[in-house]
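Posting this for the archive.
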Amino acid sequence: QVHPVESGGGMVQPGGSLRLSCSASGQTDDPHSMGWFRQAPGKEREIVGSINWLSGNTWHADSVKGRFAISRDSAKYTVFLSMGDLKPEDTAVYYCAVAPKTTRSFTYWGQGTQVTVSS
C-alpha cells in the first residue's frame, strides 16, 4: 500500500515562499504521475499541478502558474511544490496524491499539510 506523506506546510506572510515535500512511502515502482491538490475552507478540492513520472513533464493550474513549481526526486519517489509570491487565497490544506500506472488516476492520497498565508 502506498502512503504519501506531506511536509513543509506552515504560516507565511503574503509575498512569501514555502516548499512542500511529499514522499510516497511504500512505492516500489514508478508511478504514472504524482500531483498536488488543495482545499480551502468551504471550497472543493482543486488540482494545483502534476508531474508525469516517465517524462518529467509538469502541468500547473492557471491560478498558480508562474508562482508555483512542481519538481521531483525520482530515486526517492518524492515530489516537491515550490510556492512563491504567496497570496491569502492560497491558504488551504495541500494534499499529495499518487496515480499508479495501473489506473492512471490519483488513487493514493496523503493526509494533507496546512498552508496559511496571512499578515
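The chain has a mean pLDDT of 96. The two ends are 40 Å apart (CA to CA).
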